[in-house]
């Protein structure tokens, strides 16, 4: 299986991303790290530990990461979508594994330096603070990772502002670092994730599986649906974060094209925008890619089968 480090801020869709990875034989989570985003670092870390237990991930290190962005003030948490706990309305067991004592950036560095070069994929599904810090802490990780597949950004419209997506907008300087290092970066942004809507038949299908993890995922999807309806008027919520994991599991699920992507860090109205140049073919050797089209039926099959496999 492909080895991944999942860096997340659970959060409903992050929780779904963990379950997708945990139930897929094509990937193996070798470290799980957290970052402040959808909720405070304490809350998302506690959620990560509890989801890990639910998902049967008892043998991996889990480390707490950045409490706030590199330069900007503390992240504005997203309680209107993810609730006060970050996972309101979803039943989880108490945590039974201790937190790794290292800061997330250190665990990321240690893991990548330990594994053979070219074998570890970074999958960030929150603000990019830990990833940027890790790249600065140990620059050799940049040439050692296989690739970075992240949920964040958008070529067209944003969500927290007309131009910016939540994960990038929360720490644009970190995102700037991540998009400018010469590793391969695939941006699984809103252009793609807005196609992964958890419609009622999908939610019913998950509920019908009948296992504990599936029941949890069903609760997650129902709460997410309710909150997205209230916030954006969406009939079905886009399940962003598992899309990044899905791309690692099976790249044929998506149409992805190479395109130059830069992160706006100065704009008054556009801060946190991922500026993708889709006007013309990307230059030779372009290291940034944007995911644009999803085979949604196969995506949902993957999601359902994975959660079922956890048992
Ligand atoms: C992203 O923002 C967060 O609220 C979600 O977990 C996802 O990672 C979508 O913009
Ligand atoms: Ca997230």
TrEMBL record:
Q: Which InterPro entries match?
A: Inosine/uridine_hydrolase_dom, IUNH, Ribo_hydro-like
Inosine/uridine-preferring nucleoside hydrolase domain segment(s):
4-301
Q: Does the keyword Hydrolase apply?
A: yes
What SUPFAM superfamilies does this protein map onto?
A: Nucleoside hydrolase
Known Gene3D superfamilies for this protein?
Ribonucleoside hydrolase-like
Q: Which GO terms describe its molecular function?
A: purine nucleosidase activity
One Pfam family this chain carries?
IU_nuc_hydro
From its record, what is one biological process in GO terms? purine nucleoside catabolic process
Keyword terms: Glycosidase, Hydrolase
Q: Which CDD domains match?
A: nuc_hydro_IU_UC_XIUA (cd02651)
Q: Which residues form a coiled coil?
A: none
Question: How is this protein annotated for GO cellular component?
Answer: cytosol
Protein name per the record:
Nucleoside hydrolase
Natural source organism: Sutterella seckii
Q: What is the lineage of its organism?
A: Bacteria, Pseudomonadati, Pseudomonadota, Betaproteobacteria, Burkholderiales
């Amino acid at each position: 299986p492909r080895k991944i480090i999942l860096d997340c801020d659970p959060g409903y869709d992050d929780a779904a991303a963990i379950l997708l990875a945990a139930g897929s034989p094509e990937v193996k989570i070798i470290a799980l790290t957290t970052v402040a985003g959808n909720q405070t670092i304490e809350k998302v870390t506690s959620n990560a530990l509890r989801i890990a237990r639910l998902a049967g991930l008892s043998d991996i290190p889990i480390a707490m990461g950045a409490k706030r962005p590199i330069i900007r003030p503390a992240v504005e948490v997203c309680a209107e979508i993810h609730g006060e706990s970050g996972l309101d309305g979803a039943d989880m067991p108490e945590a039974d594994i201790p937190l790794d004592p290292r800061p997330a950036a250190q665990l990321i560095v240690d893991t990548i330096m330990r594994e053979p070069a070219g074998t570890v994929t970074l999958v960030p599904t929150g603000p990019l603070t830990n990833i940027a810090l890790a790249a600065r802490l140990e620059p050799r990780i940049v040439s050692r990772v296989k690739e970075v597949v992240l949920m964040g950004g958008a070529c067209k419209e944003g969500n927290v502002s007309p131009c910016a997506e939540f994960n990038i907008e929360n720490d644009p300087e970190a995102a700037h670092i991540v998009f400018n290092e010469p590793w391969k970066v695939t941006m699984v942004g809103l252009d793609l994730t807005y196609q992964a809507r958890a419609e009622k038949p999908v939610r019913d299908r998950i509920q019908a599986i009948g296992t504990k993890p599936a029941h949890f995922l069903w609760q997650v999807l129902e709460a997410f649906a309710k909150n997205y309806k209230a916030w954006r008027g969406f009939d079905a919520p886009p399940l962003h974060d598992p899309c990044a994991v899905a791309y690692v599991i099976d790249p044929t699920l998506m149409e992805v094209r190479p395109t130059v992507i830069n992160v706006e860090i100065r704009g008054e109205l556009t801060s946190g925008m991922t500026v993708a140049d889709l006007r013309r073919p990307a230059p030779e050797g372009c290291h940034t890619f944007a995911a644009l089209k999803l085979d949604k039926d196969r995506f949902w099959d993957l999601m359902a089968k994975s959660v079922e496999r956890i048992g």
